[in-house]
Write a structure and sequence with these properties.
The chain is mostly helical. It is built from eleven helices and three strands. About 70% of the residues lie in helices and about 5% in strands.
Length: about 240
Amino acid sequence: MTIYEINGSRWGGRGGVHFAPGPTWWSARRARGSIDLETAAPGREPRQDRSRATRQRLLAAAVECLSDIGFSGATVGAVARRAGVSRGAAQHHFRTREDLLTAALLHMSENRLAELRRRAADLPEGGARTGAVVEMLVDAYTGPEFAAALQLWAAAASDPALRAHVIPLEEHVGREAHRTAVELLGADERAPGVREAVQATLDLARGLGLADLLTDDEPRRRGVVRQWTRMLEQALAP
């Protein structure tokens, strides 16, 4: 009989037939971490990493579908095809279409705010800072990601199930956007009118982004931004 040893456990075989330990042993050894099935196959990335990568592809594909073909076309199947995964894999990560699309909205909102914070280090100091921040906020509400968000908002207006997902998410994103704008502007919200001025800046940025979907009138937009910057500087002045 040939004796084999795996992770300190001995077992044997004779005549080409191997007598392996039973299922109870296998389960116990796996539970204790003695056998790592994920690393047993060379060249395969761990299951957790593959799952995370699949989720990220689905979120990116959902944003693209919303932006390119609208809410009606952004079905779970369409998103899965664009992400290069099966429909079953998509539903493993997101049980419903509403779960998938609202997760995509949160994903792109977090990315947009993270990018604003990364760019904060490059902002000028002094009088030019307010104008630079307003420009950044307006730019954040343009492009494919904002177009995708608008598709979801418009659909939620007439879809109660989707609206139940979108409203609490938008409240969270709105609070984070406001907090980020306050930080970038260095605003003191204890002063009368400052909180409203910061929120008006975000509302203006969103409105200009909406107008940009139909016509790209950059000279008009920049003129509005310059005028609002002058008004905001007065509101933020100590």
